[in-house]
Design a protein that fits this description.
92 residues, single chain, elongated, alpha+beta, two-stranded antiparallel sheet, 17% strand
């Protein structure tokens, strides 16, 4: 079968496992703290359900941040009676 380990080798392996266990416990604690913080943030966000118009615009603009010089323009074709949006740049 396998080689017989000495007492020193077993002790070294045991100490290594203890350190790994301690590291894993700290990692679990860290991740649980992150999860708790996320839960708190989600609760705070759901508390305020009625936003003013300005707050709604701020939320929308923060979600869809991008280039300020590019925006969409609506178009309509009378011949085909189709409509849609196309990107436009302010310097055009």
């Amino acid at each position: 079968m396998g080689k017989q380990l000495t007492y020193q080798e077993l002790l070294a392996a045991y100490n290594k496992l203890l350190k790994e266990k301690e590291f894993l416990h700290k990692e679990v604690d860290r991740l649980q703290a992150l999860l708790n913080n996320k839960d708190i943030l989600m609760e705070q966000q759901t508390i305020k359900q009625h936003l003013t118009l300005e707050e709604k615009v701020d939320v929308f603009r923060n979600l869809f941040k991008g280039r300020e010089d590019v925006f969409a323009r609506r178009w309509y074709s009378r011949t085909s009676e189709k409509s849609g949006y196309q990107p436009v740049c302010r310097n055009e």
